[in-house]
Amino acid sequence: MTTSSSLLNLFFLLLTFTIKLKFAIAGGTVKDIDGNVLNITSKYSIFPSIENHGGVTVAKTGVKNQLLVVLSSSALPVTFTDSNSTKAILTDDIVLVNFTNIPKYNGSSSWIVIYDKSAKVPYVAVGSAKDYPSHQIKTGTFKIESIGALYKFVFCSDIANTSCKDVGVYQENGGIKRLALTGDALLIKFKKDSI
Ligand SMILES: *[C@@H]1O[C@H](CO)[C@@H](O)[C@H](O)[C@H]1NC(C)=O
Ligand SMILES: *[C@@H]1O[C@H](CO)[C@@H](O)[C@H](O)[C@H]1NC(C)=O
Ligand SMILES: *[C@@H]1O[C@H](CO)[C@@H](O)[C@H](O)[C@H]1NC(C)=O
Ligand SMILES: *[C@@H]1O[C@H](CO)[C@@H](O)[C@H](O)[C@H]1NC(C)=O
Ligand SMILES: *[C@@H]1O[C@H](CO)[C@@H](O)[C@H](O)[C@H]1NC(C)=O
């Protein structure tokens, strides 16, 4: 090996290390209300930051097989998967959110974002493209961002985070409160499920 090539190797090694270090610092951990870091093995309930305002759960609509993600009186636990394969859930990482305790919805219990005539904005639903043949599926991924001691979900249509939209709440004429890509971000907190 020549000196220049080993220097080059060292350079790339350092570069990789620096990039890794940068990434490690970039994403903070997501913590539950007890101060424990969220991990991929536990189940969590998602609550709005305002006390006694229910929790995030599912709701059926008239539309066949459609399962919406809504804010209602109680929370249905979810699990998170971090796409960086870390056991801890980090902010700014792409996360999969899956409801637990519901039947697999045509093979999927994941959150997705869909679009149809029933709402003026894209909203969060459960399942896969197979479940929504007559809807438009919005391509993108969820991330958790921290806001002080609280968190919010964002939905990003690219990895570079240049086109992320806050997940807020959409309600039409006193109807169900859908989680949707509209308005102010829904500020949330996580509580580990005892089961
Ligand atoms: C996940 O977090 C819970 C509490 O927050 C803890 O009891 C459990 O051991 C953690 N699991 C792993 C694999 O870190
Ligand atoms: C992996 O983590 C880094 C830093 O936390 C983040 O910038 C990057 O977007 C993550 N990658 C994915 C695919 O989530
Ligand atoms: C969440 O759902 C997706 C899509 O159905 C699946 O690929 C993934 O394995 C699920 N994750 C967990 C932790 O169940
Ligand atoms: C989804 O599941 C429902 C019932 O659970 C079924 O009627 C429907 O055909 C399924 N759709 C697809 C595309 O598999
Ligand atoms: C990603 O986008 C969201 C929504 O615009 C923003 O709150 C967040 O700070 C951004 N994260 C990074 C790492 O730029």
Automatic annotation (TrEMBL):
SMART domains per record: STI (SM00452)
Organism domain of life: Eukaryota
Coiled coil: none
Compartments reported by the entry: Secreted
GO molecular-function term, one example from the UniProt record: endopeptidase inhibitor activity
One annotated Gene Ontology cellular component of this protein: extracellular region
Principal location class: secreted
Hydrolase found in the keyword field: no
Membership in a protein family: Belongs to the protease inhibitor I3 (leguminous Kunitz-type inhibitor) family.
Protein name from the UniProt record: Uncharacterized protein
